[in-house]
Each structure stands twice: as structure tokens, then as C-alpha cells.
Amino acid sequence: MTRPSRILGIDVGGSGLKAAIVDANGKILGRRVRVKTPHPGPPDVIVPALVELAGKLGRFDHIAIGFPGYVKRGRVITAPNLGTEAWAGYPLAETLARKLGKPAKLANDADMQGLAAIEGTGLELAITLGTGFGSSWFRDGELLPHMELAHYPARHGGDYDAYLGDKTRKKIGSAKWNKRVQKTLATLATVFNYDHLYIGGGNAHRIKFKLPPRVSLVSNDDGLKGGAWLWHARTKA
Q1: Cys staple from 161: which of 8, 107, 148, 150, with CB 3.0 to 4.6 Å?
Q2: 79 in a structural domain
Q3: Number of domains composing the chain
Q4: DSSP secondary structure string, 92-114?
């Protein structure tokens, strides 16, 4: 297989569809483009929007797609914020590869973010705070099987996606939302015993408390840059 040199990174978000060309080291080449995510957003609406975004960015040789839900073997299994019923079983990687004429890989969006955020040593956890909640888990730079931690019970029968999601943040206010994030970070430290935790996503900048040791914020652009390591293994730091 030809080593990728210009990868079209696509980040399908609950509020925005983003795309950029990145090199094999995750550096964004040229500009980053974004449009609002249509709602409702079934495949026959989202896919043409992604094709249109790709057309604004020039040439690329590979495609990496981050999607907000559980994915397996290039297909969407769940899409909590876009409508699982419409997306379940949809072959997103195959469809975009056919429409754009280049090989494509599909990953959970938090997995894509984590691939760019991590250093590649020890046990590293990455989470995203945006429309919902996402997570990815790594050992010495290797992406471990995806767990939908977002849908683990959190409070009063709800899950972490609802507990920390943007809809809830707007409803309860920033102060209460920050307390929930702080409580969740303590839980993650106990459950995962990570060497480092990275926090990304569109709402990461809304954190107002001092972060614990071994926890840091990362750029939301990591959701695009991670496409580089979806196509080739990260070298240990």
C-alpha cells in the first residue's frame, strides 16, 4: 500500500462537519473547512455535504473519517446524535471511497481525536466534550477496542452522553456543568488509572477549574489530525 502523504481528514460532529488535508505526521496542509451539521442528518443528507467539503480542499490520496457513534468494519452501528435508525449498518467508508475515488477508513470520532492527542507511551485516555461525550483508550500508542463509555449509566437513568452533553450544559448552566466534569474526571482516574488524560471537543475550553495532574486540554483540530495515524501506526514517543 502506498504510504499516505495527503489524507483527507473528516470529523463528523453533532454541530459541525469539518474537513482538512493532513500529512502523514498530522500537520494540516492549507485550510480547514466547516459547515453546520444538518438536522435531521440521515446519510443522504450528510454524505453529499461531506463530498462538497472535500471538493473545496484540493487533492488527497487517502480518506480518514471520524464519526460520532460506534463503528465496525467501515460501517456505522450507532449514531446517537444523528439518528441511529437512519444510520445503522450504513457503509460510510465504502460510500465515501466510491464517491471520492480514494481508499477510506472509518473510526469513532473520539478515537480519531485521541490518535492525534496522545504521546504514545503508557496508558493514555482521551475524552471529548461536545454535542455528547466520547472516549478512546490507548496502550503504548496502540488504539484499544472502542468502548462506548458515553452510554454508561451516569445519573437518574441517564448516560454520560446526556450528563455532560451540550444540551445539558445549556440547560443547567456552566457552573453546574463544570462540577459534573470535575466529578467525572475523578471517576475516570479511579476506573482507568491512566498515565495521562487528554480532553478535547468543542466544549473543552469551557472548563473553568484547575485540571488535576496528568490531565491536559488538546486542540479540537486533533479530530482531523488523527486521520494520519488511522492510516499508519504511531511510533512510540
Answers
A1: 150
A2: yes
A3: 2
A4: HHHHHHHHHTS-EEEEEHHHHHH
